[in-house]
Amino acid sequence: MYGILISFEKAFELILSLNRELAGIVVLSLLVSGAAIVIASLLGIVFSYVLAFRRFPFKGFLTNLLNTSMGLPPVVVGLFLYLLLSRNGPLGFMGLLYTPSAMVIAQIILAFPIIAAMSHAAIVMVKPNIRLAALGLGATDIQASVAVIRDARYGIISSVMAGLGRVMAEVGAVLIVGGNIAGYTRVMTTTIALEYDKGNFELAIALGIILLLISLFLNAALFLFQRKVYR
């Protein structure tokens, strides 16, 4: 018990002293996950729009595939991405393996199905008369679709938050394609796993506390935003 308390004490010392190694890991984590969630959100919302408002072959199949992809195992994503980006893979010439860019790609693949599927569900749940009313008032097809998306914006925002939660907590895929290289591709989750194996609980606990605080802040911000809107 005493050893646990000492570890927590040292962890808080690392946080309060703004340890350089700790800060670098946190910043890289935020940059990688931030870039991934922005790109995944843009792609996911556009795809959910097309899926909801356009007719094309195999639409039902794509919808089922999208919903199934929400549960993609991260290690499987990391494995296939590794095979694509490795030196002997079809995309090996790009030199992306073991770089932050590869980690961003892995997180995009994991976040995209969640954002697209949840956004699509939010859009199709909007009452059809909103779109019909907009068309009846002379709106174009795109303008009517935008009106529906605006009505579904809270569900879409929730989908983005769910995607962000997925990528922030990701370990397997980014560990495989990033390599967990100190000072280059080491993020919070992979560092926690590594430091635990090494027995360096102070840094692992410090990063765990920061990761929990970030999650708490994001969820609190979403709650306050929704509360303000629904008043």
Q: How many helices does DSSP assign?
A: 11
| CATH architecture level-2 label | Orthogonal Bundle
Mean pLDDT: 86
Structural class: mainly alpha
What is the ordering of alpha helices and beta strands?
Answer: HHHHHHHHHHH
Biggest sheet descriptor? none
* Oligomer status: single chain
The rounded distance between the terminal residues' Cα atoms is 47 Å
Q: Give the class-level CATH name.
A: Mainly Alpha
CATH superfamily: MetI-like
Give the tally of β-strands: 0
What does this structure look like?
The structure is a single chain. The chain has one domain (2-230): MetI-like (MetI-like fold). The chain is built from eleven helices and no strands. The protein has helices spanning 2-16, 20-53, 59-69, 74-85, 100-124, 128-136, 141-151, 153-168, 172-178, 188-198, 201-230. It is globular and about 70 Å long. The model has no long low-confidence stretch (mean pLDDT 86).
Short description:
With 231 residues, the protein is mainly alpha-helical.
Summarize the SSE layout with pairings.
Elements: H1 2-16, H2 20-53, H3 59-69, H4 74-85, H5 100-124, H6 128-136, H7 141-151, H8 153-168, H9 172-178, H10 188-198, H11 201-230
Helix pairs in contact: 1-11, 2-5, 2-8, 3-5, 4-5, 4-9, 5-8, 5-9, 6-7, 8-11, 10-11
Structural features:
231 residues; mainly alpha; MetI-like fold; 78% helix; globular
